[in-house]
What we know:
This protein has seven helices and two strands, in the order H-H-H-E-E-H-H-H-H. The protein has helices at 5-22, 30-37, 41-53, 78-86, 112-128, 133-146, 181-190; strands spanning 57-60, 66-69.
Amino acid sequence: MKLSKRGEYGLRTLIKLGMAHEVGRDLVSASELAQLERLPLKFVEQILADLRQEGIVGTKRGKYGGYFLETPPSEIKIGRVIRLLDGMLAPIPCASEAFYQPCTCEDEAHCGLRMLMIDVRNAVANILDRYSLAQVVEVTLRKLRRDNLPIPFVEPSSVDPTGLPPKQPPEKRHADPAEGFLALLTEGHESR
Length: 192
């Protein structure tokens, strides 16, 4: 499975909207969401329209209007959002449940590639359908706080209670398994 730009931008936008919800910000404009994530405004507006049509986000019109989560973040499963924005989770169409298309092999029932890709689809779906937007937001905010980085939609305090200078974001590097969502999700539960 590979997220398209639409899927990636949609999830990033939705996570920011979830963060706003979590810190008590009622409405966020599309332009602010686009600016925070450095995304094209028109693209963000199209994605928000699709999420609105599905009842995931709502909108309030007017000068002080904006977008908000229509569905509680704990009920928004990441797999649902990806299927909405990108379609199938399976690497190949013949392994998809929701977007099945026959493949070109002679014997689909005994195709080793298809059997392997069904397992890949199942593994991906099991993770993406298990976790909610609320959990992703929780882990994201926990990591920002741990690293003493600014929280979006929260005004920075003029004085840091620790008296230490704020940490700088870590340098970009290759993906570290210890920095994955599941590792960080369990990290928070072990310390409780």
